[in-house]
Design brief:
This protein is an alpha/beta fold. It has one domain: Rossmann fold (3-Layer(aba) Sandwich). Helices cover about 45% and strands about 15% of the residues. It has eight helices and seven strands; from the N terminus they run E-H-E-H-E-H-E-H-E-H-E-H-H-H-E. A seven-stranded parallel β-sheet has the order 3-2-1-4-5-6-7, with helices on both faces. Strand 2, helix 2 and strand 3 form a beta-alpha-beta unit. Helix 3 runs parallel beside helix 4 and helix 4 packs parallel to helix 5. The radius of gyration is 18 Å and the shape is globular.
Length: about 260
């Protein structure tokens, strides 16, 4: 019996939700560099247009298209994945789209709770469910969910976000178990503090302290979005063909630092 990993072939389509900004754009760019036909999705059409232009400017012969997608809407998800099916055979789904609500738990309105859960957790489920038949019909593929170290540590003022990201890790394990027979691997990347618009806005508002974060991180710096993209691209690749149901923490050592 041959136990070797599957042979690599030309990558098919890679869908990146929230793929036009921050970590999402870095992922879209890295997957384009690796030869995938990248489908950049999101709700901001101007950002989608800018992202596709930037990818084409940086990657020779890039195969890239933009598809509007609201992950909180089942109808929007269905329409987007129908467009993907016409673009190229689906190989990879990266569930990256996310929002945050910063407020103490006792003061958080229902609408803010629902907005975060619907985007950061339910959106991952909707897109994964829509991707399943497209991946299965071509012999499988990979789903990589972008969670956060917020799934593992408490972060004050972000109760909906931490709950959603913890849910993503649980969702990952169950989908990996159910869909392995269809050749679909499902994993999570959990970024630590990364230089994104979301983190920079927290620093600007005074809700985060750059110096305090760096002091807690053993590697003494925040992550670059490209470093998160490398981890996502690895889990999506044939080199990770025997990895499923796992969470890869990319945090510079933040979560293992027990020093007072």
């Amino acid at each position: 019996m041959d136990h070797s990993a599957p042979q690599a072939s030309r990558p098919g389509a890679a869908v990146v939700t929230g793929g036009a900004k921050g970590i999402g754009f870095a992922i879209s760019l890295e997957l384009a560099r690796r030869g995938y036909a990248v489908v950049v999705t999101g709700r901001d059409q101007a950002a989608l247009d800018r992202a596709t232009r930037d990818i084409r400017a940086q990657v020779t012969d890039a195969r890239v298209t933009a598809v509007p997608l609201d992950v909180t809407s089942s109808a929007s998800v269905a329409e987007a994945f129908a467009a993907v099916a016409e673009f190229a055979p689906l190989s990879v789904l990266v569930n990256n789209a996310g929002v945050i609500a910063r407020r103490p738990a006792a003061e958080l309105p229902d609408d803010d709770w629902s907005r975060v859960i619907e985007t950061d957790l339910s959106g991952v489920f909707r897109c994964s469910r829509a991707a399943f038949p497209l991946l299965a019909q071509h012999g499988g593929g990979a789903i990589v969910n972008v969670a956060s170290i917020a799934a593992s540590v408490g972060i004050s003022g972000r109760v909906a976000y931490t709950a959603a990201k913890a849910g993503v890790e649980g969702l990952t394990r169950t989908l990996a178990l159910e869909w392995a027979a269809s050749g679909i691997r499902v994993n999570t990347v959990a970024p630590g503090w990364t230089l994104t618009e979301m983190v920079e806005s927290g620093i600007a508002s005074g809700q985060l302290s750059h110096d305090a974060l760096v002091a807690r991180i053993p590697l003494r710096r925040l992550a670059n979005p490209a470093e998160i993209a490398d981890a996502v691209a690895y889990l999506a690749s044939p080199q990770a063909s025997y990895i499923t149901g796992q969470t890869l923490v990319v945090d510079g050592g933040f979560c293992i630092n027990g020093n007072a």
